[in-house]
Amino acid sequence: MSRVIFATKNMGKVREVGDIFSDTDYEIISLIDLDNKLEIEENADTFEGNAKIKAEIVFEKFKMPVIADDSGISVEQLGGKPGVYSARYAGRNATDEDNNDKLVWELDSYPEPHPAKYVCVSVYYNGIDFTTGYGEIKGKIIRIPRGNNGFGYDPHFVPDGYNVTMAELPSGEKNSISHRAKAFGQLKNRMKMTKEKI
Prior knowledge:
CATH topology: Maf protein
Largest sheet: 6 strands, mixed
Radius of gyration: 17 Å
Distance between the termini: 16 Å
CATH class: Alpha Beta
Strand order of the largest sheet: 2-1-3-4-5-6
Mean pLDDT: 92
Shape: globular
Order of helices and strands: EHEHEHEEEHH
Number of domains: 1
CATH architecture: Alpha-Beta Complex
Oligomer: single chain
């Protein structure tokens, strides 16, 4: 088993990504397992840039291979916002509810539907090279939240082809179609190919 640190303290992400890598010989541990108080400032202007910042800082701290990601929601009528600011859209210490309230308020003057997409960029870093993965899922924002099975903007996001929000989908189905599942699924395959070449 090869141990890899997932540069996150988000238990939802840890479970999701752990499932994706469950059929590999990688053992995914997280910053929660390491009981680490590391604070990382994500100040890049792209998802890929923020993911790489996290991976590099965690690698320098622990000298172990790292996977990391940055993700968010991009709303067409808002010119792609909140984008890289999704987690702190309503301020540095904003809750999911704060961020959702701000998003719905900003969309109030626009007609429905509100086209949007979730985007995720994942990276693997071994101290030398980066391997990246990309995933997105398109849908629309609704103004009244529905569902409790999710986090972030999930209660307001209805994926294309569905009439339920991401927060109303069963975990297994959500994880199979999510932007994060696509990004880490792609990353897993690229990591596997790189390993086979060695």
